[in-house]
Design brief:
The protein is an alpha/beta fold. It has helices at residues 18-28, 34-51, 55-58, 68-83, 89-100, 113-122, 153-165, 182-185, 198-207; strands at residues 3-6, 104-112, 127-131, 135-136, 139-140, 173-176, 190-194, 210-212. The strands form 2 sheets. Strands 3-2-1-6-7-8 form a 6-stranded parallel β-sheet, sandwiched between helices. It has a two-stranded antiparallel ribbon with strand order 4-5. β2 (104-112), α6 and β3 (127-131) form a beta-alpha-beta unit.
C-alpha cells in the first residue's frame, strides 16, 4: 500500500480552478452580494503589498458573512452538479486504479477545505487538505486563510497526510500539473505530471518524471 497524493486544480479539474467555478456558481444562485464584492475588493487592496502576485489566491473574502454550514451545503451541490461532470478523465482513471489497488488516495490543494472535502466525498476519498478559510461564530470572515497549501507549503501538508495515513512520504506517489507542484514531487518516490504547464514539463523531462496527457494544455 502506498500514499497517493492528488492535486485538484489543473490535475483533476481541467481549465478554470474549482474555486473560480464555485465563485461563479455562488453568483448564479444569488449568494454573492455587495457585501462580498466589497470585501473581495478591499482584501485585494489591503493585502497586495503582503502577498504580491499571490494576493488573489489568498483572497477568500467573497465568502465573508456567509454561514459556514450553508457554504458547505452549496459546495456539495456544486461539486455534484458542476465539477464531477468535467473532471479530467485520464487523471480520474489513474485515481480509481490506485484505489482499486488498495492504495491510500488523498487530496491536497489550495482550494478551500469545503470544496476539497466535497470532491473527496464524490470520489470516495477520506483524507483531504485544502485552504482553511477564517471563520468567527460560524461565519466566514474576510481575513487571509489560516492554512493555504501552495508551492513549498504543500510539503508540510503532505507530511501531515502521510502521518495520518501511517505511510512514508518518501514512498508516496504525487500527481500535479504546475511547476508549483515540483517542490512536492522532489519529496516523493514517484511523481506524475498531469497535463503539465511548460515549466513543469521541462522539469519533468530533466527529472525523468512521468507525464500524463502532455498535450492537454497545448
Amino acid at each position: 500500500m502506498r500514499l497517493v497524493i492528488f492535486d485538484i486544480d489543473g490535475t483533476l479539474v481541467p481549465g478554470a480552478s474549482s474555486e473560480m467555478r464555485f465563485a461563479r456558481y455562488l453568483w448564479q444562485v444569488g449568494a454573492l452580494g455587495p457585501r462580498q464584492l466589497l470585501a473581495f475588493a478591499g482584501f485585494a487592496l489591503r493585502y497586495l503589498p503582503r502577498f504580491g502576485k499571490h494576493v488573489m489566491q489568498k483572497n477568500k473574502a467573497y465568502l465573508s458573512g456567509h454561514e459556514y454550514g450553508h457554504i458547505v451545503e452549496l459546495a456539495r451541490r456544486f461539486v455534484a452538479d458542476v465539477l464531477v461532470p468535467v473532471l479530467h478523465a485520464p487523471a480520474v482513471e489513474r485515481l480509481k486504479a490506485h484505489q482499486a489497488a488498495g492504495d491510500t488516495v488523498v487530496l491536497l490543494s489550495g482550494t478551500p477545505q469545503f470544496l476539497a472535502d466535497a470532491l473527496g466525498e464524490a470520489l470516495d476519498i477520506e483524507l483531504c487538505i485544502g485552504a482553511a478559510c477564517c471563520t468567527r461564530n460560524g461565519r466566514f470572515t474576510p481575513a487571509p486563510p489560516r492554512r493555504h497549501p501552495y508551492g513549498p507549503t504543500k510539503i508540510d501538508a503532505a507530511e501531515t497526510l502521510a502521518s495520518r495515513a501511517g505511510l512514508p512520504l518518501a514512498d508516496a506517489v504525487a500527481f500535479g500539473d504546475s511547476i508549483n507542484d515540483a517542490y512536492l514531487f522532489r519529496m516523493v518516490g514517484q511523481a506524475v505530471a498531469v497535463a503539465p504547464d511548460r515549466k513543469l514539463s521541462a522539469e519533468a523531462d530533466n527529472a525523468g518524471w512521468e507525464v500524463l496527457d502532455p498535450g492537454a494544455k497545448a
